[in-house]
Amino acid sequence: MELIDNEYDILEDNITRRYPGVSVNEVLLISACKTGNYDIIQWILSFDYRFMFSLMDNLGFFIACENNHVEIAKSIYKRCNVKCTEEIIIMCCEEGNLDILIWLYETFPDVFYSINHDKKYEIFELACNYIEIAVWLSTVYNDIPIYKNNHNLFFESCKYQHLELASLLVSMRNGGYYIQIIDDEIVHYDIISDLVINKKIQTSESYECVICYKTANIVTECCHYYCTECLETHINKNNRNCPYCRAYMCDNKMAKLI
Ligand SMILES: [Zn+2]
Ligand SMILES: [Zn+2]
Questions:
Q1: pLDDT in tens, 77-96
Q2: What's the pTM?
Q3: How far is the CA of 87 from the centre of ligand 2 (A)?
């Protein structure tokens, strides 16, 4: 500690001269968040009770997460008024920081649940560079729209022989994708169905398909009715926007009428 004290004096001298207005504690703490020096963090937090990251917002916490220092992120969280943000989750997926992600999810589940469908796809796409994070995300969310961008993720993973990722995507799409593997090589891949609808709604009423006026057997989240044939053709030829109201259509937000 004496050594730290001495260095601290020198640092304080240097910093206050060069950066007036920035406290030495802030600089030291931010730098320790980056290098992962847990002792320094504890030391600063032990005597600087006023230290609340007010000037730096979430910076120290952000940097600790960015560098996958779970213990540091935890200790800052305990003492300071920091919060997890969508930006931090995205960054951790980009950097491959699974340890931090698991802790963030346990601590701030609401932030994870508030992420919208488009963002979920973006996050998952980033995480696909780290198969263990992609697998973990698939357990956190059961509604990642992995078919977005015309099934690009699936096609790319097969094309570049990312066996683990391709297998994960197949398992996430419950019969929608097919891969044939021979000697650890993907020799054939295909889309079996553009629509994988697991939800079912029992109804005694009869609805007309918005496109062909025959009996509908699918209802979308936007409450428009289609027959399977029309909806699959539309998705295949055009896009995943509802032909009637243009709302984006997610598989897991549709239901089969039975
Ligand atoms: Zn129809
Ligand atoms: Zn609609």
A1: 887 778 899 999 999 999 99
A2: 0.81
A3: 31
Domain count, the chain: 4
Ligand nearest to the CA of 224: 2
Going from the Cα of 238 to the center of ligand 2, the distance in angstroms, rounded, reads 15
Query: What integer best gives the mean pLDDT of the chain?
Result: 87
CA of 173 to the centre of ligand 2 (A): 23
- Phi-psi region for residue 53, left (φ > 0), alpha (ψ -120 to 50) or beta? left
For residue 21, give its domain range: 2-82
CATH at residue 230: 3.30.40.10
**Closest listed ligand to the CA of 227:** 1
- Whether residue 122 is found in the same domain as residue 152: no
Q: What pLDDT does 55 receive?
A: 45
In terms of Cβ atoms closer than 10 Å to its own Cβ (0-12, 13-18, 19+), residue 70 is: middle
| Protein residues placing their CB within 5 Å of the ion ligand 2 | 222, 224, 242, 244-245, 247
- For residues 186 and 204, membership in a common domain is answered with no
Residues 137 and 104 in one domain: yes
Identify whether residues 132 and 164 lie together within a single domain: no
Structure tokens at 211: 């496109």
Q: Which ligand is nearest to the CA of 219?
A: 2
Helix (H) or strand (E) holding 182: strand 177-182
| Pairing assessment for the beta strands 199-201 and 255-257 based on DSSP bridges | parallel
Rounded distance between C-alpha atoms, residue 237 and residue 29, angstroms:
55
More confident residue, 71 or 5: 71
Amino acid residing at 23: S
